[in-house]
Amino acid sequence: MNDALFEEFRTGVRIPPPPYLLVKIMGSNIKTANGIKDKPKPKLKFPKLEWDMTEKKKTSRQVKSVPPYEDEFDFVDAYSDEDSSLTESEELLPENSAPSAINCAFIGVGGGGGKIAKAFLDIGFSRTILVNTTTKDQPDGVDENNFLLIPGADGVGKDVDLGRKILQENSAMVEDAVRARLGTPDWIFVLAGGGGGTGSACTVLHDSLQRSLTSAGSSGKVVYVVSKPSAQELLNTTIANNFEKVKSELSGFPHILIDNERQLQLLRNKVGMLNLFPMANKNFAKLFAQVLKLAETHSDIQTFDTKDLEKCLSTPGRMLIGSTVIRDTSRRDLGAAVLTGCINSSPCEAPSGDSKTGTLLLVATSSMASDPKISKNLEAAFSYVGGRTETLFSGVYIKEKVPGLIAICVLAGCN
Q1: How far apart are CA 46 and CA 85, in angstroms?
Q2: What is the pLDDT along the chain (415 residues), one digit of tens a residue?
Q3: In angstroms, how far is the first alpha carbon of the chain from the final one?
Q4: Structural contact between residues 229 and 195, judged by C-beta atoms closer than 8 angstroms
Q5: CA 196 to chain centre
Q6: What's the pTM?
C-alpha cells in the first residue's frame, strides 16, 4: 500500500484500489472496480432553530425563561411608598345616594370648604372629599376615606401665597385622589372659604380638576362655591385681601359666592352661635341639592331637564340661588313676589343687573295647579322673571304636602 502511494506521488497518476478494498468514509461505501454502488451519503442534519414570536409552539430546545417577577424584581415593592393593600376599586367612594340629574362630586378645600363639604356628605353626596393642609380643621364625623391631607405644612396661617404653593406642588396628588376616590364625575363642585389661606388658593387646582374631567370624557365643568367672610371678619386686612384675590380669580369661572353676613342676618334669631354656620351650610346644601333633584324629576306640566341644568351651571360668572314660599297665591303681583322673595332670602349677594341665564322652579299642590286664576298668576311669574334674564329655564312640579307655593330661583352670569 505504501508502494502504491509512492508511485502515485512520483508519477502523478492515480492507481485504482484493489477490488476487495472497501474504504468507509463518513459511513458510505466508495464505488469500487467491481461496480458496487455507494450508499448515498447521509446528509448532515442540524437542529432547526425556530423563533416562534407567538409562543404557540414550545420545544425542548427553547431557552429557559427568566425568573418570575417576584424573584427578580421584588426590590421594586420593597422601596415603594405606595400602599399595595389598597386597589383603585377599594379606594373608590360609594356612589351618591342623593338624587341628581348630573353625575357630580364635591371637593372641600381648606377649613371653611371642608365644613360646607360635610353638609353635602350628610345629605347623601358620598362622592365628596375634603382637602386640607392640616387635620385640625377636619369636621367631626368625616370618614378618613373622605379626607385628603396635603403634606408640606401644618396649615398655612391664612397665607394665601403659601397655600397656592402647597396646592400647586401637590396638584398631581389631588388629581390622583379625584380619579381613585371620586370615579368619573361629569361635574366637580369646589367648595372653599374665601378668607383662609388654603381655601382662597383653591383656583390653583383648576387645571388639574378640569384635566380629570376631560380625560374621563366628561362634558361638564368645574364650578366653585366660595363663602364671603362676615363683616366682622373682613375687618381683618389679611382676610379681606384673601377674599379679594380669590374673588378676582373666580370671575371667569361659574361660581357661587355665599355671603356669610347675609346668612348671619337670616339665622341670627333662629339658632344659637354654636349651630349658626352648621345650620347655614346645611340649608345651602339642601337648597342646591333640590335643584339637582328637580332636574331629574318628571313633571306632567313643565319640566326642567338635565340639559337646562347644565346650561345654567356652565354659564361663566357669578350665580345666585335662592328660594321663597308664597302662601297667598292669589296675589296679582305674584311674579314680583317670587323674584323678590328668592333674592331677599338668598345666601348670595343680590345681582346688580340682568343675568345671562335664569331658572325658576315652582312646586305647587294639585289644587293650585287646577285653579285657573292661580295658573294665570303662575304664568305671569314666569314672564316677570324671564324679562330679567336673557334665557329662562322653568319647571312646575306637583307636591301635596307643602306650606304654599315653593319657588326656587337660579340666576347665572350675574354682575
Answers
A1: 52
A2: 556 655 665 666 666 665 544 444 444 454 444 555 555 555 555 555 554 544 444 444 454 554 555 566 666 665 655 554 445 567 899 999 999 999 999 999 999 999 999 999 999 999 999 999 999 888 999 999 999 999 888 889 899 999 999 999 999 999 999 999 999 999 999 999 999 999 999 999 999 999 999 999 998 999 999 999 999 999 999 999 999 999 999 999 999 999 999 998 888 888 888 888 999 999 999 999 999 999 999 999 999 999 999 999 999 999 999 999 999 998 989 999 999 999 999 999 999 889 999 999 999 999 999 999 999 999 999 999 999 999 999 999 999 999 999 999 999 999 7
A3: 123
A4: yes
A5: 24
A6: 0.79
Q: Are strands 254-259 and 28-29 parallel, antiparallel or unpaired?
A: unpaired
- Maximum pairwise Cα distance, the chain: 145
Residue among 357, 356, 375 at smallest CA distance from 365 = 375
Determine contact, residues 218/171, Cβ cutoff 8 Å: no
**Rg of the chain, C-alpha, whole Å:** 40
CB 205 within 8 A of CB 109: yes
d(CA 232, CA 398): 42
Cell triple for 30: 466508495
Q: How far apart are CA 231 and CA 240, in angstroms?
A: 10
Q: In which residue are the cell numbers 305671569 written?
A: 380
